[in-house]
Amino acid sequence: MKMVKSAEVNDLGVLAGLAALLWQNHSAEDLFHEFSKIMSKGESQFFLKYEKDMPVGFAQCQLRHDYVEGTETTPVGYLEGIFVKEGYRNKGYAKELLAECEAWAKRNGCHEFASDCEIDNIGSFRFHKAMNFAEVNRIICFTKRL
CB–CB of 63/80 below 8 Å? Predict the structure, then answer.
């Protein structure tokens, strides 16, 4: 089996399980249904990273046609999420997943690739900097009930 593979519909359960570890405020069941809808639109791609036939990480990327902070072209490839299980980190697996996302974006006509992270997510910030992303802006969003 290829170490990184493009995920297909029959991989939704594995993807949702990994994604629930990243986005802990969502259930695997909710993510399964959300990812199923996203896959059906054809503007995104999921990748799975395996070590010895065990899924240990995933990445989700998609094409964004709306304005993406700091970019000048459209569509822009966008890293929506990337995750590697603890115990499998610091082995270059996230870098491999990102490379697959970037190659997919290029094949789909993108000249730029973007991402974001929460302002207090130091691990994600360090990953992005290590992968040669340039920081273009910092924002804090506000909301209130009316």
Answer: no
Encode burial over 41-60: b for 16+ CB neighbours within 10 A, e otherwise. Answer: eeebbbbbbbeeeebbbbbb
Number of Cβ within a 10 Å radius of residue 110: 21
Secondary structure of the chain as H, E, C letters:
CCCEEECCHHHHHHHHHHHHHHCCCCCHHHHHHHHHHHHHHCCEEEEEEEECCEEEEEEEEEEECCCCCCCCCCCEEEEEEEEECCCCCCCCHHHHHHHHHHHHHHHCCCCCEECCCCCCCHHHHHHHHHCCCCCCCCCCCCCCCC
What pTM was computed for the model?
0.92
By the 8 A CB rule, do 112 and 124 touch?
Answer: no
Reported as a single tens digit per residue, the pLDDT across 15-33 is 999 999 999 999 999 999 9
Query: In 3D, which of 52, 51, 144, 59 has the Cα closest to residue 101?
Result: 59
